Amino acid sequence: MTSNVHRSSVKISPGAVVCVEAEIRGDVTIGARTVVHPRACIIAEAGPIIIGESNLIEEQVLIINKRPDGHVSSPDDKPQTLIIGSDNVFEVGCRCESLKVGDHNVLEAKAVIGRETELTRGCVIGAFCEATSHGPLPENTILYGERHEQRRQYEKPPDQTLQLDFLMKILPNYHRLKKSTKSSDRGEERTASVKKTSSKS
Questions:
Q1: How far apart are CA 175 and CA 163, in angstroms?
Q2: Which of 17, 59, 102, 149 gives 20 to 30 Å between its CA and that of 172?
Q3: pLDDT recorded at residue 193
Q4: What is the pLDDT of residues 116-133, one digit of tens each?
Q5: Residues forming beta bridges with residue 57, ordered by sequence position
């Protein structure tokens, strides 16, 4: 498996708060005001991962870009980019393999979203629920309960600005942080591409 992991190239935008205890491997770009807690894992195995602005990634979260189970690697394999927009919340212990996550979505504790499922905008995947369908979930979809029932909500999930502001102040007091990269590098360009993608959604 190690041979499939791309050379580590982590780009952290100024203003992001990324704890040293977080595990980040491969070609990963993290946008401004995104908070990554200790023991979170972001692994770019089958291609780059681009994370936009103002996302909250809590402890024991796994965001991974990997080939589907059973896939046999070949020289013809092309890397696919996993793109996460802005203002998303990844709660403790959730797992995200989706190649496209829009804006203002919430993955609650222990939730799972598969590689072929697209989170559009304003969706909530409830605690312990799994979303593994092919294609996009409609905007403002809520998945909840033991039977993974589905309904629509009329308002987007609550804004996380105050929580992010609090964490950005308190985490540096208790944890060492990874240093941001220079604004002139490729990371800034990638974050900008996420913004453009989100604005078209």
A1: 17
A2: 102
A3: 47
A4: 999 999 999 999 999 999
A5: 36, 90
pTM of the complete model:
0.84
Both tokens assigned to 136: 């996009």
Residue 70, Cβ density class (10 Å: 0-12 exposed, 13-18 middle, ≥19 buried): exposed
Least confident window among 57-71, 102-116, 119-133? 57-71
- 157: which 2 tokens? 């999930």
Amino acid at residue number 88: N
Three-state SS across the chain?
Answer: CHHHCCCCEEEECCCCEEECCCEEECEEEECCCCEECCCCEEEECCCCEEECCCCEECCCCEEEECCCCCCCCCCCCCCCCEEECCCCEECCCCEECCCEEEECCEECCCCEECCCEEEEECCEECCCCEECCCEEECCCEEEECCCCEEEECCCCCCCCHHHHHHHHHHHHHHCCECCCCCCCCHHHHHHHHHHHHHHHC
Which comes out higher in pLDDT, residue 14 or 156?
Answer: 14
If one compares 159 and 41, the residue with the highest pLDDT of the two is: 41
